[in-house]
Write the C-alpha cells for this entry.
Amino acid sequence: MVDRMQAFTKDELRQIHDASMEILEDTGVRFNSGDALEIFKKHGFKLDGTRVFITENDVRSALETAPARFTVRARNADNNVAIGEEDFVFVPTSGAPNVATYKGVRRPATLEDYHTCCQLVQTSDQLDMSGWSMVQPLDIPPQVAHLDMLLADMVMCDKAYIGAATSRQAARDCLEMAAIAWKGKENLKRQPVMATIVNAMSPLKYTAEEAETIIDMAHLGQPLVITDLVMAGASGPVSLPGLLALANAEIIAGLVLAQLACPGTPVVYGSVSAPADMRTVVSAVGAPEAVVLASAVIQLARFYHLPCRTGGMITNAHCTDAQAAAEGTLMMSTAVRNGANFIVHACGQLGSYISMSFEKWLVDEEVCRTIRRILTAMDITVESIDVETIKSVGSDGNYLVHPTTFNHCRNFYRPNLFTRDDFQNWHDSGAKSVSEVAAEMLPKRLAEYTKPPIDEGLEQVLREFVNRRKKQLL
C-alpha cells in the first residue's frame, strides 16, 4: 500500500531517539517537586538542584515495564475501553473557558455547560470516554471546580472518564472519589478506572502539580497520558526534527518518573505540538506542520511500543465553518489512520483551545462516524464479489431493482447531519448550512439524555464527599 506521508526509517527514528537521550543526559529536565526529586535521588539519578539527568539505561528500564496496551474500566462494564496497539478511543474537547455559538458569539463557560457536555457524552455513539474539564466553568470558585466536574462525570455518565490534574489536591480528590466508587484503593491498584492527562511545561520542565500527579496516580496504578505542547519557534526549536527531539525528551522523562513511582503504570505517549504563529504567538494547531508532527509523534510512540495520544478535530477557527471542518478533518483522519490510540478534542474544539461549541460537537461526531466507516474492512469473498449477479445483469440490465440491491443497500453509510438532498429539496427545506442543522438538532439530542442507573447510596456518598471537601477548600 502506498502512503505519501513521510514514514520514518528506523535510522531516522534512532537519530531522534539519540538526540533526545543526549538532551536528557547532558541538559536534563527540571522537576519542581521535592517528592519527585526524592524518588530520583533514591534510585541513584544524578541531580543538580531541581534538574534531573536521565541516562539511556534509565529509559530502557522504564520502557520494559510500561505496557503497550491496557483497559480502562467504566462504571458500566459495557463501556470499558482498551487503549493501545490497534485499539483507539475518541475523547471530547478539553480546557476551553468559553462557549461559542455557530454564529461566532462567545460567552464564558458555566457548570451548566459542563453538564450539557456530560449529556452529549452519554448520548454519543462516537465518544468512548467522558472528558476532563470539557469546559472550564467560570461561575464556580476554581479551587473547587474539579469536584463538581468529577461528580458530573461519575454520576451523569457511565463511561470511563479522565482524571483531574489541575493540582495535587485535585488529583488526590479524584483518587478518593474513585476509591469510593470502586470500593477502596486496593481495588484501584488492580484495575485502571480513569486516565489522567499530565502536561510537561516546555522547554524541559515539569511543575510540582504535574510531577506530583504522576506520582500519586502511579502509586494506585492509574494510567497517565503524558503530553506536551511544544510551540515551534516559541517554547521549542523552529526546526521540526529539533522540536521532536525536545518533545520526545520531555515525554520520556515523565514516563521514567511514572515507572520509578510504580513499575507497570500504563503510560500513553502524547504530544499536540504545533508551530507558533509568529504574528500572534498563538499555537497554530490547524497548520499543516501540526498534522506532520502528529504523524511523527505516532511513529515515535510505536518505536517505543507505547500507546499514543494526539489531537483530533482541532482548529484555529472561531466558529463552525469550512476552516474548522478542513483543519479538524485533516488532523483527525491523519491521527486515526496513522495509528493514534487516545484522541482528545475529537469533538467540540475551537479557536486553538480557547472555546468549545456544542454545534461543532455534533458536526465533529459526524466526521468521527465517517472515519470509523472508512476504516471498516471489506469482506472479500466469492459471495461478496458475486460474479453470478454481474453475469445475470450483463451490459443491458439494471442493478437498481435487483434483489441484491434491496438486500444490501442499507449497509451504505447514511449521515445524520450532512445533506444528500438534491438542490431543490435542500432549498425548499430552508437552504440550511450544516451548522444550522446542528443547532436545530442540539435540543433534540439533549432531550434523548437519560441519567444512567447508579446506586443511590453511592451517589449520596460521592455528593457528601464533594460537599465536605468544598467546605474544607473554601
Remarks:
- The longest helix spans residues 240-261.
